[in-house]
Predict the 3D structure of the following.
Amino acid sequence: MNPDASPLVKDIFEKAAQPGPVREPAAVAAALAKLASESETPGIDMTTLEEALDAEFPWRNQLVFQSRQPGPDEREVWAQAVRWLINAIVATRTDSDLDAIRFQVMLAALGILDVGGEGVGAVIDRFAGTHVVASVASLVTRLAFLPGELDENSKATLKDLTERISAGDFKSLQQSLPGMQLNFGPDIWSAVFLLWKLDAALLARLLDQRGDFTFAMMVCSILGSQSPLFALQVQSVTFKFLSIPWLERLTNANSGVTAGGVLKDLLLQVAKTSHWKGWLNASYAYPEARSAQARATLAEALVQLDEPQWCDFIEAVALSTWRGSPEGLADILIQVADQLGYSKMQPFWDAAFARWDAWGYGNSHAQFLGSPTACSFDFPVAMYYARLPAQQRLAEEVRLQQEIANIEQRWFANESQLCSERNRLASRLRLVRHGAVLAAGGNHTLPGPVRADSEYAEVRYRYHNIDEAIARTVAR
């Protein structure tokens, strides 16, 4: 888009806010005349209105998409049309259905002649203290934002997704977003934008009352980079979640505001709700995939929270053995420990050990393990062992060594099961030994790279480290 378009449109709207000649757009006049001639409750053909206005004011699109500056006469005509629309919107009451639809046509036209809200935002004072707040609030609460004709399967899918989101399943929402297409026109865009500018608290209440994730998606789409800040005023966790992708644009749009600060405030708000775990499942199941800033922000939030929220976080992190997975969780927990002090971290170590111990490197699913392996919980489990009394830790180390040494005295259905069980035991032993290193003051957060016990063990137990294989492939 032409970077000069927004300031030029702002100037045109500011000029239109001043007294002067007016010009009713012919496209609007035709749409209003058609409404008046219909006997039944009329509808609005937004596509026809947009096409007619684009044809009547071609320099608007030429400015935005072709960087063609409109001439003085064209700017004057544009300003006169906007002036007429502003006056008509303020003057049109919405007491009857027909007047409400006329009002909707004018809102749509105003939105079409604007660019990114720059124009409407510049003349917002013209609508303050008028019926416009109530009228636009009524409009955004009664209209739908998905295609009107949905087949039965689509309706069932939408109903199921709505129920999942209401229960806090934000991962399902996250996975569905790429395929979701909202259907809202310039009338809705203008109505939401005006309501946000005139009475953001009312828009927040409407979001909470409606409880419709499609409505939340639509508002996020319209507010754009302002969505995360507005989300702080909204109770709806769904809206807060949907606003997160806009954080990266927030700093550019708001001087003095940081994306990290807003994310932290959102996390602290969500932590007080029943959807905290669902949020974490969708956002932090794989901490290594999040940015360093996102991990640091979560750490700052966890410092201000309590043990139940800490345990929810540990429950949300995936027990992953993918390459790089230990670093993400370790990064977050080290930052928490640096602020809280390691003496207060025991709930984290205990919760992580309990999950890791029950998981047993996929033992319950008979998962094949080609080598001892690192996992996402390496650091907290090693810290759990580091905090154990030395004799207890030593006893566990001896027990695991004996089980590994005697592995072939046990019965297994096949060689794969034997090798997998030995590698599970070796993975556990690796963390017990690293716990001893940490207890002795070692300064390496994570254990060293996985290696075969010996050349004999490498051959006898079919050692195959998938991470090493991937690394070799990438290096080629």
Observations:
- The longest helix spans residues 415-439.
- The radius of gyration is 30 Å.
- The mean pLDDT is 89.
